[in-house]
Design brief:
mainly alpha; 0% strand
Length: 90
């Protein structure tokens, strides 16, 4: 019986990491540090931040272009073509 670890699509996971890292690098070092501090201070809840900090967090996240990441990752899943789909019979 194959283990679940061996069944993971390692290439796809690496591509996801590259896509996310590419977006992360679009921020300056100062912006990355500030985003990290704000995320830690919020502890996963933006309500833990002041209104000014929430606005700053939103601006930094907007710069990451999360929709662009989603589109890029979706494109990665579509490259497999028709794998896993059933063929229609004539």
């Amino acid at each position: 019986m194959p283990s679940k670890v061996r069944a993971l699509p390692w290439v796809a996971l690496a591509q996801v990491g590259v896509a996310i890292a590419r977006r992360w690098r679009t921020l300056s070092g100062k912006e990355r540090a500030r985003l990290t501090r704000l995320a830690r201070a919020s502890r996963g809840r933006p309500g833990n931040l002041s209104a000014k900090e929430r606005a700053e967090l939103r601006a930094l996240v907007r710069k990451l272009d999360l929709r662009g990441i989603a589109g890029e990752l979706y494109a990665l899943t579509r490259r497999g073509g028709r794998r896993g789909r059933r063929r229609s019979r004539k």
